[in-house]
Amino acid sequence: MSMKAKTQNLKLRTQNFLVPLCLCGCILLFAGCQEKAKLPKSPKASKPLVGAKAEQSEVTIKRENEKLKAENQQLEEQIKTLTGIDRLARTEAISTITSIELTNRCGIYDKKSDDSNSTEKKKMLIVYLRPIDDMGDCIKAAGALKIDLWNLDAKPDEALLKSWQLEPKNLRKKWSGSLLTSYYKLQFDVNSVLTGKEKELTLKAEFTDYLTGKILKAQQVINSR
Prior knowledge:
By secondary structure, the protein is α+β, with helices and mostly antiparallel strands. It has two domains: 58-93; 97-223, Immunoglobulin-like (Sandwich), CATH 2.60.40. It is built from four helices and nine strands. The protein has helices at residues 3-38, 52-83, 87-93, 168-171, and strands at 97-102, 107-112, 121-133, 143-150, 160-166, 175-177, 182-189, 200-209, 215-223. Strands 1, 2, 3, 6 and 7 form a five-stranded antiparallel sheet that branches. Strands 5-4-8-9 form a four-stranded antiparallel sheet. The termini are far apart.
């Protein structure tokens, strides 16, 4: 065999060896990329609370602790004060309610409508109630109040015209007065209750004292017009 033929034969063998080798390399490289793409990404670690937010949280907690500490200290001082006062003396020093009064100003009054364009008037029951203590003074006693409006000239089953119940949290807002005295002033709409034929009406009040538990009553005849 000539030298030229040997050289061509060697080139042919080399090409036949390199081509499959390159193909294998490409296949392995492609498979590695695919496996890498399938791998899940590692989650990012959450950042801890740092900086201004952490400082603000510490300040808030510190303020709350200081507030609770001050309240506890105040309660301890109150307990020491109360334990140092004789119980009987403390009870005798408190003015307690002994009766209630309905003043002569209680009655039915005409009131203009809330609508400025209307000339109609409606009937309003206005009650002036005075709690009286053991010294004969008017005091703002805390308690529940029941008001009944009666027409005693009507049939027994129709005598009670209307009832109203006020709890302490609502009654306390009705405290009023003048230069001479103080009282609870209450207003009730009775426009739909009265017929206009009533001659006399009876007003009844029942006060439950929340300090002593006493139930005090009073009643008064009022005008119906």
